[in-house]
Amino acid sequence: MRATGKARVGAALFSALALGGVQLIGASPALAGDFTIQATCYRTVSVVGGDVGVSGEDIPSAGSTAASTACGMAQGANSAAVKKLQQTLKYCYNQNIAIDSDFGPATKTALRNAQRSEGITADGVYGTQTRNTLIWWTGTTTYNCNSIELPVRLA
Q1: C-beta separation of 114 from 120 below 8 A
Q2: Which of 145, 84, 138 has the alpha carbon at shortest distance from 111?
Q3: Other C-beta atoms lying within 10 Å of the C-beta of residue 66
Q4: N or C terminus: fewer CB in 10 A for the chain?
Q5: Does residue 29 have a cis peptide bond before it, meaning omega lies within 30 degrees of 0?
Q6: Is 103 exposed, middle or buried (0-12, 13-18, 19+ CB in 10 A)?
Q7: What would the pLDDT profile of 119-133 be if each residue is shown by its tens digit?
Q8: How far apart are CA 117 and CA 26, in angstroms?
Q9: 58, 139 in Cβ contact below 8 A?
Q10: How far apart are CA 152 and CA 155, in angstroms?
Q11: What's the start-to-end Cα distance of the chain, in Å?
Q12: Confidence (pLDDT) at 111
């Protein structure tokens, strides 16, 4: 069975990554800078928030450890991690996007807008630099957003 264009791009992007967290070979410098990742994000995990008195934020993850948050997502991904990213983009960055767990063109554009507003490389790809910079929707009220504490620790 032949993969669709979206699936080919996502599969090629993430199959180029090794478990050791290497950067993409042949990628543009802007893309490679945000892609020292270990796996594709597919779920969320609760980590310690950066604001005093906040117990934790759910952020995209590839497992159940703090290290598993060093994951990535790009157009073509579809998961609970994408849904969390979309909620954050909608409620913390005022992006008018659907929350449907599908990382499509609208999510990519919204992510680029959020990256630009945070002053980081606006490539529309989610990786460690983006994880560390975004403020995350806490899930309690529409615009209740919080940074994460670095280094990432489980809540």
Answers
A1: no
A2: 84
A3: 16
A4: N
A5: no
A6: buried
A7: 999 999 999 999 999
A8: 27
A9: yes
A10: 9
A11: 42
A12: 98
Q: Kindly state the tokens that stand for 88.
A: 């954050």
Which residue's entry shows tokens 């290497």?
22
Burial class (CB in 10 A: 0-12, 13-18, 19+), 62: buried
**pTM attached to this predicted model:** 0.74
C-alpha–C-alpha distance, residues 99 and 35, integer Å: 24
CA 33 vs. chain centroid, Å, equals 14
Cα–Cα distance measured from residue 89 to residue 112, given in angstroms and rounded to the nearest whole number: 10
The letter for the amino acid at 121 is T
Place of tokens 């995209």: 60
Q: Name every residue whose Cβ is closer than 8 Å to that of residue 52 and which is 6 or more positions away in sequence.
A: none
CB-facing half-sphere around the CA of 141: CA atoms within 13 A: 3
Type and span of the H or E element at 83 = helix 80-92
